[in-house]
Design goal:
This protein is an all-alpha fold and 480 residues long. The chain has 26 helices and two strands. Among the domains are: 93 residues, no CATH class; 66 residues; 102 residues, no CATH class. The termini are far apart.
């Protein structure tokens, strides 16, 4: 019974829920059968571990009901009946959280019992609540459709209700929901490809009616729906239909001003779409792209969109610090590390914090401080190790340190013997080592071919810290 459905469910409850379920179970108990409560209280005593030996059916039966000749059958019955009550309890608890679903169920109850006065009063109350404090999420557009549908389908709507809703209203409302969710889900499909797509991509060919929807979205009555306006503009920019990212700033401002219309998942997805657009702008050499990326991270931090189950992922944490440094927002990066470092997973936090602090030191020009921090840690994670070696090599380069070339060779050997890094990652780090060594050698050459080096760096996509390399090439060109 240790891994049974009942024990699995009980283990998923927190301490307060266990107490509430006990009271809930007592309310459903039959007067002549107190043994079920006795059985539950026995289980509760071992929450949340539920040790395997103590959960054996035979053991419990003998412990609680030794004189009952049908004790094992009794245990089986209790397991089944309590599991059913527990399912009802989970629904009860969920309805306390999901108020909208509770309201719809209550409306159905009023309608079935012909409590028409309370039905329409509840509809008015729901509409007022949504006007004052709109429920978040695109699903709200569907909820508004459902309330209109329930009104129109009520047999006494024309008598008691205001009778102002028409079939046309229902069609228009479901169109608003369909357009919004279609655009949102199509955009989510694109994010899985990691890059902006072209108009003839396989993904787009499978999106039926998308062009027709985009055309209809330009109508005034659909443009007045914020979700449709934002998502249709975002789609066109994301897929390249709007040239030169001309709508980006308007889309970002529209998103920030209407955050309350989206649930947490939608906020994160839309933020990722905007981030991908900025990365594409950066890839195309648009100068302000890094600042735009930084601004998006500010929004994410301010509105707590960086958390996953109470933690900040190490990748997200590093990206936020790296982008802040690239945008020369070093004080902000330092403050972020100080304020949010405690939300990293404990198994990774020490390495991530040292790596991020060393990157900030490097960008401040405190190269020796960065090297000192990196010297005291042996990074277990191969990616962190490679990034730490990258920062160390940059520091040695800037200091014109005698260890530069030996560090570069050591880094190259590390990549060669490593079997964990992907081929593309190895190539990106290897190209960084290659170009950094060429730059250092060029510093000491009489007439280095800086122009050729600049072209090679610019034309290489698989390389880490490309902006830093370009800045070093430009410095060489200026000094040439």
């Amino acid at each position: 019974m240790h891994d049974s459905k009942l024990i699995t469910f009980l283990r998923a409850l927190d301490e307060e829920e266990i107490k509430r379920f006990g009271r809930f179970l007592e309310g459903t108990a039959q007067r002549k059968s107190p043994d079920r409560i006795t059985f539950f209280n026995y289980l509760k005593k071992y929450y949340p571990e539920f040790p395997e030996k103590k959960m054996e059916r035979e053991y419990i039966a003998q412990k609680l009901f030794s004189k009952d000749k049908n004790k094992l059958k009794k245990i089986e019955n209790f397991i089944h009946s309590i599991s059913l009550v527990l399912e009802d309890f989970l629904l009860y608890e969920e309805l306390k959280v999901q108020k909208t679903k509770r309201d719809f169920l209550l409306l159905e109850a009023f309608k079935r019992r012909q409590l028409d006065k309370f039905f329409f009063k509840k509809i008015e109350q729901i509409d007022k609540t949504w006007d004052d404090d709109a429920s978040v999420g695109i699903e709200q557009l569907h909820n508004e459709y459902l309330t209109k549908k329930m009104c129109l389908e009520h047999p006494n709507y024309s008598i008691i209700g205001q009778a102002s809703i028409t079939q046309g209203d229902l069609i228009h409302q479901i169109d608003k929901y369909y357009f919004a969710v279609k655009l949102y889900r199509t955009l989510c499909a694109y994010t899985t490809q990691n890059f902006l797509v072209t108009s003839d991509s396989d993904t787009e060919r499978k999106q039926h009616f998308i062009q027709q929807i985009l055309g209809l979205c330009q109508q005034i009555d659909f443009q007045s729906t914020s979700q449709i306006k934002l998502l249709s503009n975002l789609y066109q920019t994301y897929t390249g239909a709007a040239s030169n990212f001309e709508n980006y700033n308007d889309i970002k401002q529209e998103f920030i001003s209407s955050l309350g219309l989206y649930n947490e998942y939608e906020k994160i997805d839309i933020l990722l779409l905007l981030t991908n657009i900025c990365y594409e702008m950066h890839r195309q050499g648009i100068p302000e792209a890094i600042n735009k990326l930084f601004e998006l991270n500010q929004v994410a931090v301010e509105h707590k969109l960086i958390f996953e189950n109470g933690y900040i992922s190490d990748i997200n944490f590093r990206n936020i610090v790296n982008i802040a440094c690239a945008a020369s927002k070093l004080d902000w990066a330092e403050e972020f590390v100080s304020n949010y470092g405690g939300f990293l997973h404990p198994d990774l936090s020490d390495d991530i914090l040292i790596l991020c602090k060393s990157i900030i030191d490097f960008n401040r020009g405190n190269y020796n401080e960065a090297l000192s921090k990196l010297a005291i840690v042996k990074f277990q994670d191969v990616i962190y190790n490679a990034q730490a070696r990258t920062t160390m090599l940059q520091c040695y380069y800037e200091l014109d340190h005698e260890l530069f070339f030996s560090s570069a060779d050591s880094f190259k050997s590390f990549l060669g013997r490593n079997t964990t890094l992907s081929i593309s990652a190895k190539k990106a780090f290897s190209n960084f080592i290659r170009f950094t060594k060429k730059l250092k050698k060029a510093e000491h050459e009489f007439r280095p071919d800086v122009k050729r080096l600049a072209i090679n760096v610019a034309d290489t996509n698989e390389v880490v810290n490309k902006n830093w390399l370009i800045s070093k090439v430009e410095l060489l060109r200026h000094n040439d």
